[in-house]
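Hi L., both proteins are below.
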Amino acid sequence: MKDQVIKMKKTTNPQRSSVSIFSSMPEELRGYFKKINSFRNLSAEEEKNAARKAKNGDEEAKKLLVQSNLKLVFTIAKKAIHVSKLPLVDLVQEGNLGLMVAVEKFNPELGYRFSTYASWWIKQAMFKAISEQSYCMKIPVYIQETLSKFSKVKAEMEKTYNCQINNKDVAEKMNIEPEKIDTFLAAYTTTVSIEGSFEGKNGSDLYVADVLEDEKTNIEENIEYEQLKKELSSVISTLKEREQTVIKMRFGLENFARTTLEDIGKLFGVTKECIRQTEMRALNKLRGNFLLSCYAD
């Protein structure tokens, strides 16, 4: 025990470390940090006894396990903040939820410390929150973990070879297809609000919406397209009801998606061949109507 105390004195300065952490901490976390710092760590025997009681439903034992490991959550959150767009306070909250799950699931008879087991649940809760809340689209945790490993491997390779390493070489070292890595990286593309602004050449602010191409500026094409849809709808309306539906579904007209003969047959309860004959009959009628309209003109 004496040797352990001497070793701690040589390697750490708790007071200095605590002051450094406290000074760089966001205001909303300072009171919280003071409070969790007052909870003592449990010995291995105390931890095992508390875990056994917690497993039997003792709420006080669960509370003791949670409180004694809140500093662990804080430590993990400080490391996770470097790969997260979430504030530290959010990471701590998510980590605490993971800690409570760990208390419910921990089996003290397996022989390892609770902190070792809880660390996995804490990290999972944090990275799940990072993947769900940091981006406009939900990014699965396994992609987060893969890209975290990708960043580490790439940094190690660049340090070893003292040059820029492309993504393909890193993917090969990780035994992952380069296309998959590119797909994962694309999920992290930064999104820009259409109402966002940036500084123009003359110093004035420009909005993203002002520099986007307006796809509806060609009024003539839009008018022609709308007129074509009306004429097409008018011609198809001369067919029988089933023939109209078959043509619309086969060619993806109006609100219908392009559909196979077999699927249309299932819809009407008839064979694929029956729908094919209906389609041919409808097309022949449309051709005949088109020729009549030409001669009439």
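That was the first. Here is the second:
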Amino acid sequence: MTRPDGRQNDELRPISFKPGIAPHATGSVLVSFGNTRVICAATIQEDVPRWMKYQKVGGGWLTAEYNMLPYSTHDRKQRDISAGKLDGRSSEIQRLIGRSMRAVVDLKALGPRTIWLDCDVLQADGGTRTASVTGGCVAIAIALNQLIARGKIKSFPMKKLIAGISSGIYQDTPILDLNYPEDKDASVDFNIVMTEDLDFVELQGSGEESTFSSEEMTAMLDLARKGIGEITELQKQAIKDADEMSLGDLEDLASCFKRN
């Protein structure tokens, strides 16, 4: 079996992270999985939702929003606002992203703040929800490092890194990181979210008018573990690079003050 883009069955698409893509956000990154590209931006507000105040819930909150831009697909996608409501798929995906992030962020340590994570799909070629989880983790980590640098919190509230990846059965073969042609024709599709320690956070899997065996499920989970292990190493480097870039910006600003 030959994959449409020639990858090995256990091979990820090229993955990259470009930090600082949304300068007005507290932390942001453009994450790319092959031709799938998503802007993930974390904005931190010094307030909590009203329901937390009324119920006297301590700590902070984290929530996510997901959106596919009209030009992200081959045929223009109508904006949700045109229909007057968020479509079911977008609503389900943003709940997945929010749940995933809350699993690894210590909201008590965050303090009375809200993290808004916005995930906007620029280009969709399969795996937009898992790319959003993966990029969202990096964006939030960058934002939390900014809070520490500004002296607003003392410790890093993210307990572990988290990432998402897809696996599936394509032409009777388990494969990793499905692109759109594979996702469209897959007989089984899994979306898997795991921590850097390879603990599961969420599994979403189903047969597309098909069934799958326990052996096939084990094979897909094994592929996901391999992929998540590789992705979290890339995340660590992206967060480190963004932190060093921020330190460099501060040093440049200090130099300007000294010259003046």
